[in-house]
Design brief:
about 280 residues, mainly beta, nine-stranded mixed sheet
Length: about 280
């Protein structure tokens, strides 16, 4: 393992280059306010990148066999752009694991993510969670494009909506003509706290090759079980603490997959204080 040294900072950009076969440890934490981040990873390299500020554009290129863990933790409205873009391309057997966490109080956030699986057996994994309250609106536009054969994309999002919050979630999977054997799955689940949240789920599957392993989607939205809430209240928990525990339990499987313990702790702290 090596510490990251190949970092170049320009006036408004950050460039990270990981040479072939190099595995970087510890994680690289970006808390700068650069509007553009470029990550280029050579074959069989490995990096954990943590974004504590949300750049307008993050452009990522993974060469054959490279493995990227990327965590975007948006918990501070001062560090958040209203619109951010992630563009990611993966060559043969490359793996990307994205953890996209939206917990800030900023209004009108839009996230655009495009993944291009251009090499055979490339794998994209996206896990996301969010908290929305008051009149906050959050919009996701996610495209995962299977260009090469035997590629995989797995996407799972979970979130909690309160008050008059609005979520717009558009998840698109494209299977190109040459992408036989592809495995694509996307799911989005929302827990509703309150009477007036608005949800707009739009899953899109564009399939040009029918010789696939899987290409499916699923969405769910539901309210808290009143019997569960009554049971917790009867055991001495007030409504606020009951809702907090239920919320944490709903998001727990996503939180448990986050690869860095200190990020898990930050997420749990924000959930505990109500976002």
């Amino acid at each position: 393992m090596k510490e990251l040294q190949s970092v170049l900072m320009y006036e408004d950009s950050l460039f990270i280059h990981i040479p072939k076969d190099i595995k970087i440890e510890p994680p690289y934490i970006n808390d700068s306010k650069k509007s553009k981040v470029i990550i280029y990873m050579e074959p069989y390299s490995q990096l954990t990148y943590i974004g504590k500020t949300q750049a307008e554009l993050v452009e990522i290129h993974l060469d054959s066999g490279a493995h990227l863990y990327l965590i975007n933790l948006d918990g501070n409205p001062e560090n958040t752009n209203n619109e951010s873009n992630i563009l990611l391309s993966l060559k043969e057997e490359a793996i990307s694991e994205l953890f996209l966490i939206d917990l800030s109080k900023k209004e009108g956030i839009k996230r655009n993510i495009k993944v291009s699986l251009i090499g055979e057996k490339a794998t994209s994994k996206i896990r996301g969670l969010y908290l929305l309250d008051k009149n906050k609106q959050l919009q996701y536009n996610i495209i995962q494009n299977h260009i090469a054969p035997f590629t995989a994309s797995h996407l799972v999002y979970k979130g909690i909506l309160r008050d008059d919050a609005r979520l717009i979630f558009k998840g698109e999977v494209i299977i190109e003509e040459d992408a036989e054997g592809s495995d694509a799955y996307q799911a989005s689940h929302a827990l509703i706290l309150g009477k007036n949240p608005t949800l707009d789920f739009t899953p899109i599957l564009e399939i040009k090759n029918n010789n696939l392993k899987r290409c499916t989607h699923g969405t769910t939205a539901g309210k808290i079980d009143e019997e569960m809430l009554f049971y917790m209240n009867s055991r001495g928990l007030d409504k606020e603490n009951s809702l907090r525990l239920i919320s944490e339990g709903f998001l727990r499987d996503i939180i448990d997959e986050i690869p860095e313990e200190f990020i898990k702790a930050e997420v749990l702290k924000i959930i505990e204080t109500g976002g």
